[in-house]
Every structure is written in C-alpha cells, then in structure tokens.
Known about the structure:
The protein has six helices and 13 strands. By secondary structure, the chain is an alpha+beta fold. It has a single domain, classed as Adenine-n6-DNA-methyltransferase TaqI, Chain A, domain 2. Helix 3 (125-131) packs across helix 6 (168-207). The longest helix is centred in the last third of the chain and has 40 residues, at 168-207. The radius of gyration is 21 Å and the shape is globular. The model has no long low-confidence stretch (mean pLDDT 91).
Amino acid sequence: MPGFTGKWKVMSLGELFEFSGGYAASRDELSSEGHRYLHYGDIHGSSKTSIDTTLDAQDIPRLDVSLKQVSPDSLLHHGDVVFVDASEDDEGTTKHVVVSNQEGHPFIAGLHTIVAKPRTADLTHEYRHYCFQTEAVRKQFLFYAVGTKVSGISKTNIAKVFLPIPSTNEQVEIASMLTDMESELAALHSRRDKTRALKQAMMQELLTGRIRLI
C-alpha cells in the first residue's frame, strides 16, 4: 500500500497464539438461559467471520452451567479466534470467527472448537478479521486436514500454519480498506434486493392484469 515499504515477516500460528479446546455440550443442552455459548454448528452455519457478544446477543445460544465447571481456557475474550476442528467438506475446514467481547461477557467456546488466544501483539484486532481468509491459508489448512467423510484438524497442526504479517500500521490500513469494500458490497446487495423485489411486484401486477400496458 502507498507509504509502506519493506518485507513482511512470516510467523506461525503457534508463535502467534496459544491453543485450547472448548467445553463439550450438545445442542439439546442449549437454551435461552445461562451464559453465551459458541456452538461449532453456528460457526459452520454463518457467513460471518466475527461474532460480537453484544450486537449478536440475540442470536447466541445460552448454556445454563456454573463457570466453575468451565476451564478458563474455554472462556472467550476480546480478540480470541475460534476455529472448528472438523468439517464435512473442504470449504468448511477453515471456518472460524474472531471474538468481539469488549464488555467481558462470560462466553464459552463449545464442542469441536479450537480456541486461539493471542500470545503476542503482532496481529491487530481489525486485521484478524481478514488474514485467515486468504487462499494461501486455506491451502495450508487443507494440507493438514485428515479424514475422508469428515475433515479434521488438530491444535498441533493449526500451530504449523504460517501467516505473512505486515507492520501494525499497514495492517490497520489494509483492514480499513477491506472494511470499506465490504460496506460498498453490502449497499450494492441491498440495492439489488430492492430492485429484484420491485421487479417481482411489477410482474405480479402485469401478469394478473391489474396494471395494463398502454
């Protein structure tokens, strides 16, 4: 990007994060009561790569369990990254979410998740929202994934994945540019959907004879 020079350093995820597992609970145990709980199925089922404990509170299931039963390593804090450890297809192998939890709500990582807690300040929070989505990272995940019907990846193998890392200032600029692009895309999608709905309404009126062409 303009104004930045020099080579990016390369670090492994094992250098950047400490890895742990989640607290095992089935979908049947979840309800609207208790503490926020991140089920691996909700990571697979979402197109988002981040989760906010406040903005997404209504969509996050709860688990009614004492926090004394939950390992501190399974409690999610602001900036943690949560990967799924298994997927039924290649596309889901790199599924993950970056946690936004600035209010410090108790938030429990669930079954079949791998929790990555930052051990350094080399990655900015904003940059984490994008840096695991590249084709180069995806190929590394696929290389280390094992299994036939279900592809699984371990904490040991995730630690071997490498990331190219620019300076923190450049990370902020890159994340800002990508965020702006996402906003533009969202606006275009909204316009498309409104236009499509208008077209459908006009078709309905024309094809039922309620509106006549003159």
